[in-house]
Amino acid sequence: MQELQGKKVAALLSGGVDSSAAVALLVEQGIRPDLWYIQIGPDRDSTDYTCTIEEDLEMARAVAAKYRLPLEVIDLHRDYWDKVVSYTMERVRVGLTPNPDVMCNRLIKFGVFDERVGKDYDIIATGHYATTERDSEGRTWLCTSPDPVKDQTDFLAQLMPWQLQKACFPIGHLPKAEVRAIAEREHLPAASRKDSQGICFLGKINYNDYIREYLGEQPGQVIEEATGRVIGMHRGLWFHTIGQRKGLGFSGGPWYVIRKDLERNILFVAHGWDTIEQYSDHFQTTPFHWLTANPFGEAATLPMTVKIRHTPDFCPATVTHRADGSLDILTERPLQGVAPGQFAVLYDEQRHRCFGSAEIRVE
Length: 363
Description:
alpha/beta, SH3 type barrels, 9-stranded antiparallel β-sheet
């Protein structure tokens, strides 16, 4: 964690155990941050969502009261809809697999928040599991957490360089168990609170219900790729992702989604738990977003490690830099469920520095 003495710090407090413990560690170091709760959510009235906000705010206010720190609520609901939810729905509409949490960090937590109030602070601290380090040239690098299961560098890999320079992750060097231990030691109300699951803006709202409200339904055939046999009907390609195995609801399974035909509105599936159609070891990206620096230099191809989803699994890969800024990635072993629109996140061979990310390209 970078040196914070004498700097003006804003800490983003969500009401969860991670951000609560992050504030506790800042205070322990003599830092008195201003606390901010970012209010975001779906573009509709929802009792479930309102209840989630109230519960989160109650936890956040308890942390503020314990350490006698100021807490402000900033409503970025409309900004979130315009920037993140619209991105999500547009990509889902055209058959891609977006990651709204990635864009929330870049566009909202370190984006609009900075435009509104963060610009008045030297540092923005969050409860992410990630670390940063400066090299001999004074550049800031995003680095992984020692807890591979909780590591969130993949969610931060689209930050702009100036955003990364302002970012601070007080708990990033700790495993989850120690973070909970800190919360328990400090008697923070979120100490026993379960980790949030799913997409950040939904609260307790079902993702498919949310998509249905904005995109509706568009029924089409579900076809077994190997035989051409129609096994059922889907309600809309946007309810399914490449690699999906659960919730398909078709008899005679198990079934696995392998591709979508948008023009004909057909969902293609394969039969079995571990079929060859589920895997790929070669894919391309859109022009790559480099967090700190492009490491290629004179080299056209470099060994790296890659993730294509939020998982503790890093895969060694050979990466080739293409003339248009995109990348060609050949993985050491086939990866399951490679889907256009997912973010491919690249790291060094030691799985330490995160270089950045880009969407997997539609071929």
